Amino acid sequence: MIETKLFLLALAVLLVVGSVNHWRRARRAAGSRVWPRTTATIERSEIVKDRVGSQNMRVYVPHVEYTFEVNGRRFRGATITDGADGWYTGNPAHARARLAQYPVGVRVPVYYDPRRPQDSCLERAEGSLAMGYAIPAILLAGGTLVGGLVLASW
């Protein structure tokens, strides 16, 4: 019985932590939609090979680094799409296609947080803002419910 309660309590904690993390990413992605725009220069554009999961699956991650200036200060960024950190594919052709629009030396639009210009992205996040906030709200409610039930029955 104690093992079940500990498992449910751990699950509740994971749900709450996951919801907070997802909420932060959704909030940042929503914020990038209104960030000002300037021009960046692509400094590095490459495919990084990696392995993920218990199957040790080979994945290909498009990696871009760019520089831009805001109010005379130079910044470096590496985020392609805000809110989509960790994008990867098992198909190298998909990664090459993703990088095709970002060859080294090209000047591209960049969006940056006016309060923290080091936070930037080349593409604004797409998708439903409501869904971005709904998922963490559901996870948070579920984690709170499970945790409350476990603690109440202890």
How would you characterize this protein structure?
The protein is of the alpha+beta class and 154 residues long. It has 2 domains: 1-33 and 128-154; 34-124, no CATH class. Helix content is 41%, strand content 28%. The chain has helices at residues 2-32, 92-99, 129-152, and strands spanning 37-52, 57-70, 73-77, 107-112, 120-121. A 5-stranded antiparallel sheet has the order 3-2-1-4-5. The radius of gyration is 20 Å and the shape is elongated. The N and C termini lie close together (10 Å). 19% of the residues are buried. The mean pLDDT is 78.
Question: Helices, strands, pairings?
Answer:
Blueprint: H1 2-32, E1 37-52, E2 57-70, E3 73-77, H2 92-99, E4 107-112, E5 120-121, H3 129-152
Antiparallel strand pairs: 1-2, 1-4, 2-3, 4-5
Helix pairs in contact: 1-3
Please state how the strands of the largest beta sheet are arranged side by side.
3-2-1-4-5
Radius of gyration: 20 Å
Helix content: 40-55%
The count of strands amounts to: 5
Features of the shown structure:
single chain, 154 residues, alpha+beta, 5-stranded antiparallel β-sheet
Short description:
This protein is of the alpha+beta class. The chain is 41% helix and 28% strand.
